[in-house]
Amino acid sequence: MLGGKGPGGDEELVHREVPSPNHNERNLPISMVVLHYTEMKPVETALERMCDPAASVSAHYCITEEGEVIRLVPEERRAWHAGQSFWRGLPDVNSASIGIELDHPGHALGYRSFAEPQILALIPLLSRIVRRYNIPRANVVGHSCVAPMRKIDPGELFPWERLAEYKLCLPRPTSLAAGDPFHNESAFFLALERFGYDITDQRKAVEAFERRWRPECITGVVDGEIAAILWQLLLDRDQGRTR
Questions:
Q1: Global pTM value
Q2: What is the mean pLDDT of the chain?
Q3: Residues near 71 by Cβ (< 8 Å), separated by ≥ 6?
Q4: Residue 242: DSSP 8-state
Q5: Cα distance between residue 22 and residue 59, in whole Å
Q6: DSSP 3-state assignment of 117?
Q7: Residue pair 113/157 in contact by the 8 Å Cβ criterion
Q8: Pairing with 203, which of 6, 9, 48, 168 sits 20 to 30 Å away (CA)?
Q9: What percent of the chain is predicted at pLDDT more than 70?
Q10: Which residues are catalytic?
């Protein structure tokens, strides 16, 4: 475990450093966390790629399936994890976010549930980051949320509700009494964009929304249930019940 003091005073949560050269100056204050999976095995393969200047990718942290927290890029620097992305009007997600990669085979190498030691390591790290930068729960997102046309990670098995128990992300709405409030699909997509999503590819945007908010049924088609979920999310946010 590292000694000394880090910028956030959380050195006890970081087990080792593997410095990546792939970072630059931020253009925005930190207001987001983006969660990814590596889709590479073993973890050293992912670390090598994130440290390869030719790859032009990186993240601030990588957490192994065994629960080891590895820091690659200092938080004050802009890591290159989100690529072309968008969230709540921000086209430069990298500048506004902390990127955390989760060591995982992903959909390409045998998708499975996330390891318990990994989630147990993620929760305190994420808690420190959220408190440090006063990050809204709505801004703790998956890669698929900010890049729905390109990405599906961390995927439908990621335990968002575990994070929500600690108020580290928004929980799935349980009160859907309003039903489907949208008169047509155009109204739904305007609301989806208002919530934060890039709706350039509408089907992919719906899939990304389902993957986060209704992971048991991903169709890419607007229906009454996901419309009711989106309506409740917006209602809760507008009425100050969530942030």
A1: 0.94
A2: 93
A3: 14, 16, 17, 18, 60, 61
A4: -
A5: 9
A6: helix
A7: yes
A8: 168
A9: 94
A10: 101
